[in-house]
Amino acid sequence: xxxxxxxxxxxxxxxxxxxxxxxxxxxxxxxxxxxxxxxxxxxxxxxxxxxxxxxxxxxxxxxxxxxxxxxxxxxxxxxxxxxxxxxxxxxxxxxxxxxxxxxxxxxxxxxxxxxxxxxxxxxxxxxxxxxxxxxxxxxxxxxxxxxxxxxxxxxxxxxxxxxxxxxxxxxxxxxxxxxxxxxxxxxxxxxxxxxxx
Length: 197
Hints:
This protein has 197 residues and is of the alpha/beta class.
């Protein structure tokens, strides 16, 4: 048995995604062993993040500025909004450096099983942004799950009355993917999205 403070730290870390009790225990032992080079800078950074990071009131991104750096970047295309489920998806798209428009984080997807309806998501703020008249295209970059596709259909229906183009990301066989290893849903989406060679 270790000290109560160490056990509490292990319990707190084990709540993080991707970390179970054993991984958390290894991480805690490493942090304590490397106290000066790892633990103390981590503590300082966590305090800085807790004190300074805010949710952007426009798009839902996390940043130290409000509105966030993406929303205030004059070089970005205001006519395009890419709708994502959460901030992790926004960051993934930014890493790819392909999209130069604006974002909108829904904060989840519609899910009857989990009790998530339209009122629990940031749908009304998206509609307000579309009504502003600057938006010409809305890209629905939502998960290829039943809940993600349900959300995409719901949003497309809500936006049908506005003069905006509604698109979604392509789905299908990944680069280097072999058909034998793909699930049926991926093969089906790839077959439906086929194009001329």
